Amino acid sequence: MDIQNRFLPFIKSLTHDGLRTNHHVLFVGHGGLFQLMLPLVLTNIDDDFVRSHGIGHAKCVIAELHAEGFPCRQWGNAQL
Question: What is the pTM of this model?
């Protein structure tokens, strides 16, 4: 819960600013963190998807921020 309480406000602050300035953000971190936290912010990713697809070493997750949500476009090798 401590990680979630820090991660979600941080993402919210970046995504709110991103809607106004249209900039790119790169996150580098541990797969475990992203597997636990990204289903909470990405609109088309849930825990079942993460469990079935995982995320390997040095893999990318690409998401695009839109006014209607924050969908994932690529999760590792999976194009969405």
Answer: 0.80
Per-residue pLDDT of the chain (80 residues; tens, 9 = 90+): 999 999 999 888 877 765 555 667 778 888 899 999 999 999 999 999 999 998 888 889 998 888 788 899 999 988 99
How many domains are there within the chain?
Answer: 1
Q: Are 49 and 56 in contact (CB under 8 A)?
A: no
| Beta bridge mates, 78 | 75
Structural domain for 7, as ranges? 2-79
Token code pair at residue 57: 């070493």
